[in-house]
Design goal:
7-stranded antiparallel β-sheet; 27 strands; 24% helix; 6-stranded antiparallel β-sheet; alpha+beta; globular; 13 helices
Length: 696
């Protein structure tokens, strides 16, 4: 589409009751990011209330008509995805604005390939709008969905706001009294905010309500940041002229009311950070579990139990079930799940591992579920049969679950579709690592509706993480791992070798799983960085990584962790058998080089003594370097002797990598997990997060 163009959705697909809108962009440095937001507008072009403004602190509508799904890795970087159940949009909403905003002074003009795409309920892409002239704006309107004659249409906007999210929200009638609407000015506001008790302007006087014989009083409350419990101070004094004269027999003390905070979320339940002291007499006593794993003896038992456990929790915990199915085009509604369902298929009925059904306004959305555990792979003929059955019966999706990780451009199972059928079936894949990640995010960071739901998710997570469940995520580098390592050692591995491509693909799967695991533990976005040119086919990118493996014997990747001062680089050198984790931080804008060096060493006081610290020089290579143990008494050794300009510092840790292809004690996958955890916990967490990453 081009800027200003519009199109009717029903002209593009018959399955537009639920649609997914994806906002994407890429950055030359790999560091660009933005937050998406959605506004529901009444016929007057304004929000009906502040609850019609959806953003990172208010991601899901109460009726499920809007849900912000967060970021998903793609071939060219990442996409922020939003699902809309258009059949559930309130009748008095005429327009839906889809926007995004940057923070800390960043502008959309610094990003590449700024775009918005829209897919129907089956996942098929319907349209794409690329914004070529975003310019120096802090917020950007990507597009809008609007009603015309009872149908929904999409218009490509591409309109920017120099005033950022605050200006955009105010134009559409949102009260941005709290920190959610002051993204770009949060730090300045925090420093300049005066004491609440000393600022009567922040509180409005409430005239006393006349009831004939007595006056109603409203309790006072003072707004505080969302992360801090709201205190209830004593009533503040109100000027006499600000209070209306009450008609009562006796004077009543005037009461004031604070300006209400918009978009106050319901209290959520998360797990306590510190576990309660056990009542067990000794460590041999084991807590009773809802989902035991001791009786699992075969792969079939594991698949049956894992499917039943997962689907039952999805049906009982709405936040969890909705999160797993929304991206597949499921509406928000009453969910029921089933196992071992028999479906007619000629002379031999088929039995998928599970079925998910969601009812919304009398309509049913149905997905068949096929599950694999341990190292078992999905069977193409089996998945094809389920896709055919779903198409014949009018079902919407087939969902596959296994320990494998699907890559962009490389589906785990190729399913042929009958072009003559009007009904489309979406084929979607989830890894068990995805499921565990979503459970972690809810019960440890974002919260669920009540304590019972939190307990159910905790039991599910315990089951998935048990060694006997078979739901461990990606745990095998594949049969090509050992031959490729041997080929690198004896220098017989040649470019174009398909085994090297297989190892490169499995490396990408491993990195994505590391991001899911670390993000679930931290409660922050952790995403792989793809520094590929715009439009590069993901398979071409993997072939280039395989060629690098053949020539240099090395696998490289980068992870962006929200809130950290740089990109975490991960490198596996198969020639030396070493894993390297590193991060680059920029030199401060002010001060003296010796002060920078001393401050850095002081920040790393608890970091490992074998941490390597290297000074990065502008336009030069080979700056001063040394281990932290040697630099602690002499931080000045980091300064260049020729007074060259310092660009920043690189911090690196090395460790031996596992040789086997699996996740055993000596396995490569376990060594990667441990290397990333050690570097993040003992180095990255010690750094000043206000620093930007260094650029070479």
């Amino acid at each position: 589409m081009v800027k200003g163009a519009n199109v009717e959705l029903t002209a593009l697909s018959e399955d537009v009751g639920s649609v997914m809108v994806s906002l994407g962009w890429s950055s030359p440095t790999g560091e660009g990011d933005a937050d998406v937001s959605v506004l529901l507008l009444a016929p007057d072009g304004k929000v009906r209330s502040d609850t019609d403004f959806y953003f990172y602190n208010n991601p899901v509508a109460a009726d499920g008509c809007v849900q912000l799904l967060g970021k998903t890795p793609t071939a060219d970087g990442n996409e922020d995805r939003i699902t809309f159940d258009l059949t559930a949009i309130p009748a008095d909403v005429e327009q839906i604005i889809v926007a995004a905003s940057r923070y800390n002074g960043a502008r959309f003009g610094d990003l590449d390939d700024v775009r918005v795409t829209l897919a129907d309920g089956s996942g098929e892409g319907l349209l794409r709008f690329s914004i070529e002239d975003a310019g120096p704006v802090g917020a950007l309107l990507f597009g809008e969905l609007y009603r015309r004659a009872g149908d929904w249409k999409f218009r490509a906007l591409g309109q920017g706001y120099e005033s950022g999210l605050a200006g955009l929200a105010q134009d559409y009638g949102v009260d941005i009294d709290d920190d959610a609407g002051e993204v770009e000015e949060a730090e300045a506001a925090a420093e300049a905010e005066p004491d609440v008790a000393a600022e009567p302007a922040a509180v409005e006087a409430v005239p006393l309500a006349e009831t004939g014989t007595e006056t109603e009083a409203v309790e006072a409350s003072v707004p505080t940041p969302a992360s801090v419990p709201t205190p209830v101070p004593a009533p503040l004094p109100v000027p006499e002229q600000a209070v209306a004269e009450p008609v009562v027999k006796e004077p009543v003390e005037p009461v004031v009311k604070a300006v209400p905070r918009p978009r106050t979320a319901k209290k959520k339940v998360t797990l306590p950070k510190v576990a309660k002291k056990s009542l067990a007499e000794n460590d041999s006593w084991r807590a009773a579990r809802l989902f035991p794993v001791s009786a699992l003896k075969s792969d079939r038992d594991r698949e049956t139990r894992a499917t039943s456990v997962l689907l039952s929790v999805m049906a009982q915990v709405p936040e969890f079930g909705r999160r797993l199915t929304a991206e597949f085009g499921a509406p928000a509604g009453r969910m029921e799940t089933f196992t071992e369902v028999s479906l007619p298929n000629g002379d031999s009925p088929r039995r998928p591992d599970g079925v998910i059904r969601v009812e919304r306004a009398g309509k049913l959305w149905t997905a068949l579920v096929e599950t694999k555990t341990n190292g078992n792979s999905l069977k193409p003929d089996q998945v094809q049969a389920y896709a055919d059955i779903a198409a014949r019966r009018g079902y919407e999706a087939v969902i596959t679950l296994s320990n494998d990780v699907e890559l962009d451009g490389s589906p785990l199972v190729d399913v042929k579709t009958d072009g003559r059928r009007k009904h489309k079936v979406a084929l979607r894949h989830l890894s068990w690592a995805d499921v565990a990640h979503q459970a972690q995010m809810l019960i440890r960071h974002e919260g669920v509706g009540n304590a019972a739901h939190a307990w159910l998710l905790q039991e599910l997570l315990h089951y998935l993480q048990h060694d006997n469940s078979g739901c461990h995520g990606f745990q095998n580098m594949g049969p090509a791992w050992v031959p490729v390592r041997n080929g690198i050692d004896d220098e017989t591995l040649c470019q174009g070798d398909k085994r090297a491509v297989e190892v490169a693909e499995n490396w990408e799967r491993l990195v994505r799983q590391v991001c899911l695991r670390l993000g679930g533990e931290l409660g922050q976005k952790v995403l792989p960085v793809q520094r590929a040119k715009r439009g590069t086919d993901p398979r071409v990118r993997r072939e280039a990584l395989a060629d690098q493996l053949c020539l240099a014997g090395r696998l490289d990747s980068e992870l962006r962790i929200e809130g950290t001062p740089g990109i975490l680089a991960l490198s596996a050198d198969l020639r030396t058998g070493k894993l390297r984790t590193s991060i680059e931080i920029a030199a401060p804008d002010q001060g003296y080089p010796l002060t920078w060096a001393k401050r850095l060493v002081r920040q790393l006081s608890d970091a490992p003594a074998d941490l390597h610290v290297e000074t990065l020089l502008v336009g030069q290579t080979g700056g001063p370097r040394g281990t932290l143990e040697r630099l602690r008494p002499e931080p000045g050794d980091l300064l260049p002797r020729n007074n060259a300009e310092i660009a920043g510092f690189r911090l690196s840790l090395f460790r031996s990598m596992g040789s086997s292809r699996g996740n055993a004690e000596s396995g490569f996958i376990r060594s990667v997990d441990e290397a990333v955890d050690r570097f993040h916990d003992h180095v990255v967490m010690r750094l000043d997060r206000s620093q930007a990453s260094a650029r070479r």
